[in-house]
Amino acid sequence: MEKTEQLGPYTLSWKDGVFPLGGDALALGAFSTVKPGWRVCDLGTGSGVLLLLLARRAENLSLTGIDIDPLARIARENLAANGLPGEILTGDLRQAPLPAGGFDLVVSNPPYFPVGSGKSGGPARSEEFCSLAELCAAASRLVKNGGRFALCHRPERLVDVLCALRSCRLEPKRLKLAAHGPGHPPSLLLVEAVKQGRPGLKFD
To answer: How many distinct helices (H) and strands (E) make up the chain?
Structure first.
């Protein structure tokens, strides 16, 4: 069964088996720094929702996505249906045949739970195929010096996220915690890092 959602001027479509549109992706799409003409890469692109969310904020983006799931073709179809040029690859993001330092911005809504943690959000939320450290290493390889890597994650993994970023020469520069509403504890962590950036973290 196909579902659709209007994202500003663009229409997102996805089918059963593709990770559905959620608040995490919407928050990350609004949080990430993006400027016209930037080269953008989405690691674990799924339906391509982050590419659409960024494209509605800045013109003339060069859009690239990669996902290990063959259903990544849905992202390719979403770009085409909205008249957006771009490249969607099917494969392992840890071995992506993409140019090192080729992007101004890398984004990811990654798996949240380490293997063996006892927690589960389904296959798309387990680090079975890509750990947090491996994700940060891939982002560091792909983003240019001075470029940005933005991701969302679970607040309880804040220390893991910051340590993984810094160990890959990605200096955390912006951080935001989001909750479902007043009186609720934070349920989402948003972080943006700059490759080879100077120390100094700002809370949004």
So the answer is: 5, 10
| Joined tokens for residue 138 | 């891939």
Q: Are 29 and 54 in contact (CB under 8 A)?
A: yes
Q: Which two tokens stand for residue 67?
A: 């996902």
Give the separation between CA 148 and CA 155, rounded to whole angstroms. 20
Work out the pLDDT band at 114, boundaries 50, 70, 90: confident
pTM for the complete prediction?
Answer: 0.92
Three-state DSSP class for residue 62:
strand
Query: In angstroms, rounded to a whole number, what is the distance separating the alpha carbons of residues 196 and 36?
Result: 22
Q: Which residues contact 187 (CB under 8 A, 6 or more apart)?
A: 155, 178, 179, 180
State how far the Cα of 200 lies from the Cα of 197, in Å rounded to an integer: 9
Work out the angle between the directed axes of helices 158-167 and 132-142 (0-180°, nearest 10): 40
Give strand pairing partners of 40: 63, 105
* Residue type present at position 19: F
- Residues 3 and 52: their CA atoms lie apart, in Å, by 16
pLDDT tens, position by position, 74-94: 999 999 999 999 999 999 999
Residue 191 has pLDDT above 80, yes or no: yes
* 42 alpha-carbon distance from chain centroid: 5
Let me know the angle formed at the C-alpha of 12 by 150 and 174, rounded to the nearest 5 degrees. Answer: 15
Report how far apart, in Å, the C-alpha atoms of 202 and of each of 2, 8, 51, 180 are. 40, 29, 25, 22
